[in-house]
């Protein structure tokens, strides 16, 4: 196993394991999981996302390698929706197939493996990763929820334009896309956050990764994983292997070569990010499967990320 990969992934596994132990020992009750999810989704994640986007200069970003990444992601997202139908469950599973843990695992991994040149490529992706994938997924999920409620009689049927407008509003006034958009707009002013604002945001953002992973472990403690291990393994194989294969093929077709293509493929091979789990909690769908999938995907990545790095090194 690649030592760089192990050094990046094992802390993630240990944090999930710590949460699992806390749940099994009863230190955190199952009734507290929703409150913990609200803490992460409504406070910690917005702080992290706003601060990350508040320094992004759009004019300095290089988009061709990133375009290959998103093309592969949207193709896989669309295929998942086509196979599973237009509903909130399909949308959350499609997000799980395409959303990588690019910050907590990707930054140390790429930094150690490919140095500053690789980090420039990865940070270009990270600056748009959540903005594009999470905002797009939120719009799709909100449309799916509206469609489900209309069909079940919980919501009156509306013209499609009204439904789309409402879904877009719900997607923007949302604890994930809103701070991303606000941070990006702030960055274009050229101003810098004052220290008394930046420091609390930094501390809240730093708490996001470990607490989110601990919550995955807590939820895992109350989830019968044996029931989900087969579909969780299938989801993990799609995320860890099929996703990078699509990104590699599309990147090659677009003429992306060398380090930029390598970093995009390695980023696609990373395991599922914790935000997928938070979406499943928020929209109350497939919580058990997504919880198990995040854990299985992370463990499987010890092998699959090493394989992706080796394969790209042969080109």
TrEMBL record:
UniProt keyword terms in alphabetical order: Cell membrane, Membrane, Transmembrane, Transmembrane helix, Transport
Q: What is the source species? A: Variovorax dokdonensis
Q: What is the lineage of its organism?
A: Bacteria, Pseudomonadati, Pseudomonadota, Betaproteobacteria, Burkholderiales
Cellular location(s) = Membrane
Please indicate if the UniProt record lists Cytoplasm as a keyword.
Answer: no
UniProt xrefs under InterPro entries: Mem_transp_PIN-like (IPR004776)
**Membrane topology per record:** Multi-pass membrane protein
Taking the record's annotation, the residue ranges forming a coiled coil are none
Transmembrane stretches, start-end? 6-27, 36-54, 66-83, 90-114, 120-146, 167-187, 207-225, 290-312
Return the protein name.
AEC family transporter
Enumerate the PANTHER family for this protein. AUXIN EFFLUX CARRIER FAMILY PROTEIN (PTHR36838), TRANSPORTER AUXIN EFFLUX CARRIER EC FAMILY (PTHR36838:SF3)
